[in-house]
Design brief:
CATH topology of the largest domain: Aminopeptidase
Order of helices and strands: HHHEEEHEHHEEEEEHHEEEHEEHEHEH
Strand content: 25-35%
Number of domains: 2
Helix content: 25-40%
Shape: elongated
Strand order of the largest sheet: 1-2-4-3-5-16-6-15
Number of helices: 12
CATH class of the largest domain: Alpha Beta
CATH superfamily of the largest domain: Zn peptidases
Structural class: alpha/beta
Number of strands: 16
Amino acid sequence: MPVVNRIADYAPQMTQWRQHLHQIPELALDCHETAGFVADRLREFGVDEIHEGIATTGIVAIITGQGDGPTIGLRADMDALPMSEETGLDYASERPGKMHACGHDGHTTMLLGAAKYLAETRNFTGRVALIFQPAEETIGGARIMVEEGIMDRFDIGQVYAMHNVPGVEPGTFFTAPGPVMAAVDTFHVHIKGVGGHGATPHETKDPVMAACGIAQAIQTIVSRNHYALDDLVVSVTQIHAGTVDNVIPETAYLNGTVRTFDPAVQQMVMERMKTIVAGQAASYGVEAELDYEVGYPATVNNADKAAFAVEVAKGVSGDDRVVGDAGRVMGAEDFAYMLQARPGAYVCIGQGDSAGLHSPEYNFNDEIAPVGASFFARLVETAQPIARVAK
């Protein structure tokens, strides 16, 4: 059961769709033109229902199969990133400061390819819910769509998503049971001291030194407050203070990210960070305020659904091109909210040798689109097969 022949026939169309979407990147919830393009294609395919305006620009489309049965959800993200493209492609972004640098144009195209095939063949029972989601990169469009009730409204029983990965052989698949991507939190530390002349530091309460002390102390959370074999990342990524060489500033600012899998570890980090910021502020004689933002939760695959996805992927790409125990990574993904609401799996597909995700030189590999679309289609047909009556 390799790449579906009918979907392979769509390859030129899918390339056109993807390259068009690449030219019109949109950010966050503001995916109006992208969603309009998706809805137009879905109407051409003859899907049964198109529900627009979910999470502002999200879409859920329904295709009904042959006979009663459950509903399986397939999700693709649509939004781009706020960065300038440097690919030099003929179909590069037409919008300065906006770029499809994570392949969401390709993800949308793969789901459209599966939608076209499923609407034509309907070789399954029950229904498939095609979920086109905005704002994966920012405020969590998946969370908003779940909060707006798509799982109950469309009676979705299980849900799947896919992401491309550069540097992995094209058309290969990998995933894992249980946690596959980390929870992501953000911290901000605002420090206020007493500024003054750089030649008379004794007359100041130096926020720069306090910032350095806080940054160093925060790094001890991983090394001294946490079991070394458990996954945890705490990274200070910004320190801003001062404007000239001979003035000690009045304020300083720190910012960073925390990646966890265990809620208990996440809570420990929050408590330790509060204690460290308060203690360091007192030791340097400054004021410091911690703003800790809890972000996307960990992306946790249902073990049975992950195993099922692996078997489907093997049918598409071959046994030796699928890894079912690839482990977990410290990146984050808002599909976590959908997996909290329903059992399912998040699967990665190899993109081949290309620039990395979020690089200004990245471009989705159109050759893998029929592979990804075939995986989505076979998920539906395998999960909800039509009964064959022996003659």
